[in-house]
C-alpha cells in the first residue's frame, strides 16, 4: 500500500482515467462506478483519446476530449494507409492537445488508470508522475502476447498491469512485470434487465452487432443481404434484434440501407419504453427492431450473433453466444483482426468471407444445431471469464493506493 507521505497528502484524491475507444470507455466507467460506490468523494477526470467519452456522462466525471474525429477511429494498426488520412485530419494536433491537457492535470493526480493499449500507456508515461495502473484490453497470450517493446514500456511506467486473462498475467510475471488477473471487466459492462422485446422463449433469434464505428453504415448492407437469404432458406422462422451503438446515428443508418429496399420506420411509445427506438423494414415484410441502451438484453435473447464489433463480439462470446463475423470495409474489422479475435476466443468467433450466402448458411446451421452452439458457447465463456472484475479492481485500488 502507498503510505501518506507529505507529498501524497498534498495531492487531492484525483484519479485520472485514460481510455482509447468506445469499449475501453465502457470498461473504465465500470471501474469508475464501483470506485464511487466505495468513496463518493473521489475526484475523477477522464481523458478519452478516441471519441468524446460519452460513457463517462452518467457519472460525476470531468471529461477532457480534443473532439477531433479521425478516419481510422484509432485503428491505424489494422490498416496502415489510414495513417496518412489521420495526419490530414489533425492527428498530431489531437495528440498534442491530449498530452497537454493530461500534463496540465497530472500534477494533481493521485493515481492514473490507463485502459487500452501501449500507445496510450506511452502517452501517460510521458505526461504523469502518479502511479500508473494499466489495463491491457486487447493483448492476450491466447492470440499473440505483448511485444518486447510493449513489455519494456510496462516495466518502465507501470506500478501494476491488469491482464485480460490468467494466461497473459502469468506470462507477464515470468518476465518480471507485476501483473494480476482480477476478472474480465468487459463482462461487467453488460446490464441485463430481463427485457424480452416481445419475443417468445421458443423463437430462434439472431442478434445483430453492426459495430460502433462509421464503417457500420457500410457493413450493415452485407448483414441485411444475409438476413434476406436466411429469411428465404431457413426451415423455421427467424427473428432479429439489432443493437445500435450510441455513437451511430439512426438517420445515417436509414440512408445507408434505402438502396437495398430497406427503410427506417418509427416505433410506438410502448416499444420505446422497451428500448426499441425504431424498426428496419423491408418491402417483403421483414421487420427488425433497432435496440438502444439494452445491449445486454439483446445478447441474452439471441441464440447466435452476427457481429462486426470489437468489444461486443467478445462480450457475446463471454455470454456463450457463437458469433459469425466477416471482414468489413473500414479500419477496424479487417480479416486479420477477426482471425486474431477468433484465435483469442478459441473459435467462438467464426470468420466467414464477405459473402452473404456463406454468412447466411453458417447462421442457419448454428440456429438448427443446439449441440454445436453449446460447445462453442462453453469455449467462449471459458476464454472470457465471469463478471465481477470491476468491483475487485475498485476494491484493490482503494486499498492499495489509500483512496479512502
UniProtKB/TrEMBL annotation:
Superkingdom: Bacteria
Signal peptide: none
Entry-linked InterPro entries: Lipid-A-disac_synthase-rel_put
Protein name (database record): Lipid-A-disaccharide synthase
